[in-house]
């Protein structure tokens, strides 16, 4: 895994005096699904919010260390460029309530002030919505507000919104925690499909989900990276005792 | 790329500058009031009556007393009615009539003060055939009403209904429950609502123009015209005499101090006497 | 007893409306529709046309709104987005609080002694008749007076924009100003509009400060630098000196007009605020 698309090196992060992540080292290969799992409060969300530099938006946030995207330190690049290359989907579906479904898909371009011809936009909207299996469901109501969609549909719209920018990596922060089992299954299926075009980093506290969709899994506990390796290995022969305990439901 | 970041910074800088510039008038006004106001204030300013133009000295004791009388009358008129009305709409919040009253109160709050002046002129000044402290006080009271109703309602709405049920379960009557349990629990909000409404009307001038009217002499009779600080500031500032202008600055200083003290008091009351549920 | 208090509040408001209506009858009989279309107001000859004052009122109010908007919008973004906490935010909060509680007569007084000479100098240097007082001066004072109201409401709605929506926009690579323009403002549009409406209602009915600096002319203002009168200021000026019953009644009818206009504006503003369920 020496040639990962994203490398996290000696990384620390926290708020004020409180340290949340200690000495994280992680290399992420491209076009795979990587799960980050661990009990709540272990720093999973903080970690992925550092990867697209969203962590810094909070007051009192601090960090130390390097994160390399294609061998280039993201903290030496403008956060705006980093976020365009690394998309994000949040826990609760949050389509922009003031924009139509169509505008939501291309909102990355709208927000970044990128103008393009109508045909081009139409193409991106259709292509992306097909990618997330939403096209058939919304093709007749593209210009309505996205708020009438079901939770699962809204979340797929949010994934489309992130995918439309053609990011290299997409971060999913417990994307199914607010959804019912059926919608969850659809999103999981989607995750395994989109890895052809993008690297997926999935935060989840659901071990079964990690096992179902990911190629690699990292186990995070109390801000420390306990174990990282191929999902199959980690689930069948965990090296660390804490991983084993977590997988057998002793804590978390 | 670089252009967008510069644009973003520029936007932020413009916001900061415009926000700060907005405070400029306040600083200018306060500075002039303090500078010119303190210069014309001394002991006789508080105890003496106004002097004819050309003579120095003279005070505004009549206006200070008048303001006080007007506020007392306004309070008598509005506090009971306002608190009861606010209690009514919070107790019967789902009824159509409460909805209607709430709407009325909001519209009430938006009525221009000069219109209130006309109303009280027709209702009280015309039948009594004279301007009076009573009519001025009622005009101010009408202006206080919506503020008291709203603050009472908002305060009572935050009181958990379990408190009321607990009292009723002990066998207390509805009236006892309201008077001994609910209203005391909301006393901080109700009181600060009353104080803030006083601070709002203390500086009102327009509704007094044709009700309290103004009076250069000391007057304790509520059926006769009285002066008030804002009326005096209006009359003196429109005059061509520099001595009167300096009296108006002094009166402005006293009035602003009174209002700011009331505001601070309000904040203290709502913090200190807060009931924790 | 509670019920009685509620009813009394209702009666009071309806009473105000009907009192104004009845008080206006003599003027309505005398002038009819000419009251609304007449361009001349002359108590001596008994001609009462409200057009000069309606124009004066609308001109001062909208000009004030126009002047104040960049400032109140900046304050609301400053307090609602850029600096929610900190010494500067505290200062700005206090400053707008005090601005809102300064009595209008003091604004007028300050305007008369400070603003009028400045405007006069300005007018001289641009070769405009140097009245000093007039529509423009009144608008300036009004603008300062309504800034706290617009900015307060706008700040409240901007604070209501959910964090996750803002974050979604940031995660797509938007800069802060782009998030403000394309996410925050569209999201809080109706609330900001309500704030503007309520401030407009306040400006339309504002009396003292305007009366003191507008120049009190009953002619239709020729330009924004001309003296004029608003509905409220002409009532303040002429009410106690009304020459006869029709004159008094015409002033009451102006009050009725003002009541109806501000009532409608406040009604719409409050409905919007209620829908957004923010405390106004």
Commentary on this structure:
The complex is a heterotrimer of chains A (252), B (277) and C (280). The relative contact order of chain A is 0.18. In chain A, helix 7 packs parallel to helix 8. Chain A has helices at residues 44-51, 79-85, 101-105, 107-111, 118-131, 135-138, 151-163, 181-194, 207-213, 231-236, 241-247, and strands at residues 6-15, 18-28, 33-37, 61-69, 72-73, 86-89, 169-173, 199-204, 216-221, 224-230. Chain A is 36% helix and 26% strand. Chain A has one domain (6-247): 3-Layer(aba) Sandwich (Rossmann fold). In chain A, the strands form two sheets. In chain A, strands 6-7-8-3-9-10 form a six-stranded mixed sheet, with helices on both faces. Chain A has a four-stranded antiparallel sheet with strand order 2-1-4-5, covered by helices on one side. In chain A, a hairpin with a 2-residue loop joins strand 1 and strand 2 (18-28). With 252 residues, chain A is an alpha/beta fold. Chain B is mainly α and 277 residues long. Chain B folds into two domains: 2-39; 43-272, MetI-like (MetI-like fold), CATH 1.10.3720. Chain B has helices at residues 2-21, 24-39, 43-47, 61-91, 96-110, 113-128, 133-157, 161-169, 174-185, 187-201, 229-237, 242-272. In chain B, helix 2 (24-39) crosses helix 12 (242-272) and helix 4 (61-91) packs across helix 11 (229-237). The longest helix of chain B has 31 residues, at 61-91. The model of chain B has no long low-confidence stretch (mean pLDDT 89). Chain C is mostly helical. Chain C has one domain (53-276): MetI-like (MetI-like fold), CATH 1.10.3720.10. Chain C has eleven helices and two strands. Chain C has helices at residues 2-31, 34-37, 51-82, 87-101, 104-125, 135-160, 163-171, 176-205, 208-213, 231-238, 245-276; strands at residues 41-42, 47-48. In chain C, helix 1 packs across helix 11, helix 5 packs across helix 6 and helix 6 crosses helix 8. Chains in contact: A-B, A-C, B-C. Chains B and C meet through helix 1, helix 2, helix 4, helix 5 and helix 6 of B and helix 1, helix 3, helix 4, helix 5 and helix 6 of C.
């Amino acid at each position: 895994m020496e040639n990962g698309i994203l490398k996290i090196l000696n990384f620390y992060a926290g708020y004020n005096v409180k340290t949340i992540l200690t000495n994280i080292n992680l290399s992420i290969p491209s076009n795979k699904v990587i799960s980050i799992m661990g009990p709540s409060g272990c720093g999973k969300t903080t970690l992925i919010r550092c990867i697209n530099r969203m962590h810094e938006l909070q007051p009192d946030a601090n960090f130390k260390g390097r994160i390399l995207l294609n061998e280039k330190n993201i903290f030496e690049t403008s956060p705006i460029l980093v976020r365009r290359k690394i998309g994000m989907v949040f826990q609760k579906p949050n389509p922009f309530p003031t924009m139509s479904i169509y505008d939501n898909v291309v909102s990355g371009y709208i927000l970044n002030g990128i103008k393009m011809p109508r045909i081009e936009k139409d193409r991106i909207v259709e292509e992306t919505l097909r990618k997330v299996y939403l096209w058939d469901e919304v093709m007749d109501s593209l210009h309505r507000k996205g708020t009438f969609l079901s939770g699962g549909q809204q979340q797929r719209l949010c994934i489309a919104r992130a995918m439309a920018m053609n990011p290299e990596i997409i971060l999913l922060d417990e994307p199914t925690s607010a959804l019912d089992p059926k919608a969850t299954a659809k999103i999981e299926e989607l995750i395994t499909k989109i890895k052809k075009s993008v690297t997926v980093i999935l935060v989840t506290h659901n071990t079964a989900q990690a096992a179902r969709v990911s190629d690699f899994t990292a186990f995070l506990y109390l801000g420390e990276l306990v174990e990282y390796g191929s999902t199959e290995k980690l689930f069948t022969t965990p090296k660390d005792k804490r991983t084993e305990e977590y997988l057998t439901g002793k804590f978390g | 790329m670089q252009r967008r970041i510069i644009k973003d910074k520029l936007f932020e800088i413009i916001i900061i500058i415009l926000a700060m510039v907005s405070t400029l008038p306040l600083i200018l006004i306060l500075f002039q009031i303090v500078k010119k106001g303190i210069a014309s204030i001394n002991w006789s300013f508080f105890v003496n009556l106004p002097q004819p133009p050309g003579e120095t000295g003279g005070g505004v004791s009549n206006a200070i007393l008048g303001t006080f009388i007007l506020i007392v009358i306004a309070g008598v008129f509005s506090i009971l009615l306002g608190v009861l009305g606010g209690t009514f709409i919070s107790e019967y919040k789902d009824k159509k009539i409460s909805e209607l009253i709430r709407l009325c109160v909001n519209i009430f709050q938006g009525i221009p003060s000069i219109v209130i002046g006309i109303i009280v002129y027709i209702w009280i000044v015309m039948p009594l055939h004279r301007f009076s402290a009573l009519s001025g006080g009622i005009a101010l009271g009408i202006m206080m009403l919506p503020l008291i109703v709203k603050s009472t309602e908002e305060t009572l709405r935050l009181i958990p209904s379990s408190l009321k049920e607990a009292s009723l379960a002990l066998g207390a009557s509805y009236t006892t429950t309201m008077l001994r349990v609910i209203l005391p629990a909301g006393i901080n909000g109700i009181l600060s609502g009353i104080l803030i409404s006083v601070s709002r009307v203390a500086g009102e001038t327009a509704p007094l123009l044709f009700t309290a009217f103004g009076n250069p002499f000391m007057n304790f009779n509520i059926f006769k015209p009285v002066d008030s600080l804002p009326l005096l500031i209006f009359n003196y500032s429109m005059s061509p005499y520099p001595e009167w202008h300096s009296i108006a600055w002094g009166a402005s200083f006293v009035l602003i101090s009174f209002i700011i003290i009331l505001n601070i008091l309000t904040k203290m009351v709502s913090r200190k006497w807060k009931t924790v549920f | 007893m509670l019920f009685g208090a509620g009813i009394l509040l209702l009666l009071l408001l309806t009473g105000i409306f009907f009192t104004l209506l009845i008080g206006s009858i003599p003027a309505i009989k005398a002038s009819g529709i000419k009251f609304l279309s007449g361009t001349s107001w002359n108590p001596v000859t008994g001609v009462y046309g409200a057009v000069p004052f309606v124009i004066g009122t609308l001109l001062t109010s909208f000009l004030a709104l126009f002047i104040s908007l960049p400032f109140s919008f900046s304050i609301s973004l400053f307090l609602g987005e850029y600096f929610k906490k900190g010494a500067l935010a505290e200062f700005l909060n206090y400053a707008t609080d005090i601005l809102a509680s300064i009595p209008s007569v003091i604004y007028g007084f300050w305007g008369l002694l400070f603003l009028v000479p400045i405007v006069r100098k300005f007018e001289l240097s641009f070769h405009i008749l140097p009245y000093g007082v007039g529509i423009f001066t009144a608008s300036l004072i009004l603008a300062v007076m309504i800034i706290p109201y617009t900015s307060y409401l706008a700040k409240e709605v901007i604070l209501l924009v959910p964090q996750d929506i803002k974050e979604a926009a940031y995660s797509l690579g938007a800069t802060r100003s782009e998030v403000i323009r394309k996410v925050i403002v569209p999201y809080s549009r109706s609330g900001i509009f309500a704030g503007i409406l309520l401030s407009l209602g306040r400006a339309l009915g504002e009396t003292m400060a305007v009366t003191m600096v507008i120049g009190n002319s009953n002619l239709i203002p020729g330009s924004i630098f001309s003296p004029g009168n608003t509905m409220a200021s002409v009532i303040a000026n002429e009410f106690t000196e009304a020459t006869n019953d029709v004159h008094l009644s015409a002033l009451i009818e102006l009050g009725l007009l003002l009541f109806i206009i501000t009532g409608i504006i406040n009604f719409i503003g409050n409905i919007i605020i209620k829908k957004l369920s923010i405390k106004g």
